[in-house]
Design a protein that fits this description.
Elements: E1 7-12, E2 17-21, E3 27-28, H1 34-45, H2 47-53, H3 82-91, H4 100-112, H5 120-128, H6 131-142, H7 150-161, E4 164-165, H8 167-178, H9 193-206, H10 212-218, E5 223-226, E6 230-235, E7 239-244, H11 255-268, H12 275-278
Length: about 280
């Protein structure tokens, strides 16, 4: 991708939207898909079942760590790292003759407010180079954390990461979470408030991987990054923010995206622990 691409969109809980930069540029969701699919797993199975397979603790490790799989419970630490996201995707079941993958695409499309598609070139690239993710899946299968078919689960996971969006789409999804699950354009309740709360809690503690503590300290908002250069941020009750810039740091976060979010939070006093935000 052109490293100079940049776009940012804010979508309010009332459905108003404001964008700057390369706002029509498509990019793949990558790991920003993780909390979204997690909320779908909660919708299908409920909290107790999902978290019998995936934990809720931050790791302090990189997003592709396998350390936790060798520990006592053998469960992934949380749904925001690769092992946890693969386990979460494995829980998605087909409904009414609709395949698991199509159900995921339909769900994310409804949250975004328009039909979304998968980039097959990105999917094929993911599939061909996913040796570590394949090893993670086999470890989870070995420990009975994941009971579904490995190849089907991985294909679904790579496909969800390859869904193409704009910052407008991602900001609309973030705004839906900011409204406790009500899509601001259609007014449909797509996620229950309880499931939104749980998703945002995990985004806050785990969404920025091994920099989650620094993010909580500097920004103080639930967020999720992806190696395509995307970050989406939820300001509960106010708006969703999505930023895209392909240059990423060693942790897989957009460099300019992080700087923009940090500046915006300071300028508008958005930290959820700030008295200004509470008021």
């Amino acid at each position: 991708m052109n490293p100079n691409l940049f776009s940012a969109t804010v979508t309010t809980v009332n459905g108003d939207s404001f964008s700057v930069g390369d706002q029509t540029q498509l990019f793949s969701l990558q790991s920003t898909s993780k909390p979204i699919v997690y909320s779908l797993a909660l919708k299908q199975h409920g909290t107790n079942y999902v978290h019998s397979r995936v934990g809720v603790e931050p790791t302090g490790e990189a997003f592709n760590s396998i350390i936790e799989l060798e520990k006592q419970s053998h469960r992934p630490f949380n749904p925001m790292i690769n092992s946890g996201a693969i386990a979460t995707t494995s829980l998605i079941r087909s409904e009414n003759g609709i395949s698991k993958l199509q159900l995921i695409v339909n769900y994310i499309s409804e949250l975004a407010g328009r039909p979304l598609s998968i980039d097959t070139d990105i999917f094929n690239s993911e599939r061909e180079t996913a040796h570590r993710n394949r090893a993670i899946a086999h470890l989870m299968k070995h420990f009975d954390v994941m009971t579904s078919d490995i190849e089907e689960t991985l294909d679904n996971y790579f496909n969800q990461c390859s869904i193409l969006v704009t910052t407008q789409d991602l900001a609309t999804i973030a705004a839906t979470m900011a409204t406790q699950g009500r899509q601001p354009m259609t007014n449909k309740q797509l996620i229950t408030p309880d499931h939104v709360t749980k998703t945002l809690s995990l985004m806050f503690t785990c969404g920025m991987y091994d920099t989650a503590g620094e993010w909580a300290f500097k920004v103080g908002l639930p967020a999720k990054s992806g190696v395509s250069g995307a970050i989406f941020v939820v300001v509960p009750g106010k708006f969703g923010l999505a930023v895209y810039s392909p240059k990423v740091d060693d942790h897989g976060h957009s460099v300019r995206g992080r700087l923009l979010v940090e500046r915006l939070v300071q300028e508008l006093d958005l930290n959820i622990f700030s008295l200004g935000t509470i008021q």
